[in-house]
Amino acid sequence: MAAALGGLGLLHGRFRLAAAAAATSSALGARPPLRGGAAAAAAALPSVGRSFGSEAKEEEELRVRYLDEEYKGIVVLGLNRSHAKNALNKNVLKMMSKAVDALKSDKKVRTVIFRSEVPGIFCAGADLKERAKMHSSEVGSFVSKARATINEMANLPVPTIAAIDGTALGGGLELALACDIRVAASSAKMGLVETKLAIIPGAGGTQRLPRTIGVSLAKELIFSARIVDGAEAKSIGLISHVVEQNEAGDAAYRRALALAREFLPQGPVAMRVAKLAINQGMEVDLVTGLAIEEACYAQTIPTKDRIEGLLAFKEKRSPHYKGE
Fold first, then answer.
1. Residue 176 known to be catalytic
2. pLDDT in tens, the chain (324 residues)
3. Is 40 part of the annotated catalytic residue set?
4. Which of 20, 113, 121, 291 has an alpha carbon 20 to 30 Å from 43's alpha carbon atom?
5. Pick the catalytic residue: 73, 166, 171, 202?
6. How far is CA 24 from CA 20, 114, 279, 301, in A?
7. Annotated catalytic residue within 194, 258, 274, 277
8. Is the pTM higher than 0.90?
9. Which of 19, 126, 256, 270 is labelled catalytic?
10. What is the rounded distance in angstroms from the CA atom of residue 115 to the CA atom of residue 246?
């Protein structure tokens, strides 16, 4: 018993350090409370920010946009490989890794939305044309890179939302599963279809899908390579919200924007350590999870934002958080 408690103490200390690291990379202050809901998200979006693209192609295969004005703090990552249905190849994975690495250390980032810039498709999975040209010795390395890149995205310290306005298969769905929240159009199609190709999901699908919808149902979907639409995905808990597609083909993206704006008024440090507490806590027993929560909560106590929150409540006004 004493040994168990000692181990718990070590875990407690480790998560204090992890939470402290998350707190020190806090973002900018929050925006005013959401006023227009989903309607406000229908406004024209600015295209301000940096982009990471392939120099070998005219189009940018991954667009990174830092939104402004009422959307300030939201960053949009957009896949843009129309000729390949946004399939993941070596170049795209490299650009994704570079973009995510920049985002995780950017204190201005509050929420990240992952979407497609190509109508009707989210991501078709791995680029099988490129895969067919690989030597068998290269395949393992490619899958490891895909897994590592998607893990990097899952470990971003801020909330992430996948906006699925089209087909998300194989690695495309694994990409969405790595996000904290998934929103999809009712017409979207989703599935882990790797067993049709005599392989298995290799970028987190066998682990994240069961944690999302339950073990038995995840096995059924993977064993059958079944594809579900937005309505069924919502019914089984694969996605959080389903919306009817609009004429522009970006209904899920607009819903994701509305959600992201709901996150903006909250304390930046609190958002980061809340995500840390949830993610780490889901991988351990309840007692250890509660110790993780305690360690993360402790990181919010000495912050200026906590004092500002109490003062704003007392003065009956909106708080002005600075991420400090």
1. no
2. 333 333 334 344 444 434 433 433 333 333 333 334 434 444 445 433 344 333 334 458 999 999 998 999 999 999 999 999 999 988 899 999 999 999 998 988 999 999 999 999 999 988 878 887 788 778 888 888 989 999 999 999 999 999 999 999 999 999 999 999 999 999 999 999 999 999 999 999 999 999 999 999 999 999 999 999 999 999 999 999 999 999 999 999 999 999 999 999 999 999 999 999 999 999 999 999 999 999 999 999 999 888 888 888 888 888 888 877
3. no
4. 121
5. 171
6. 6, 25, 18, 13
7. 194
8. no
9. 126
10. 16
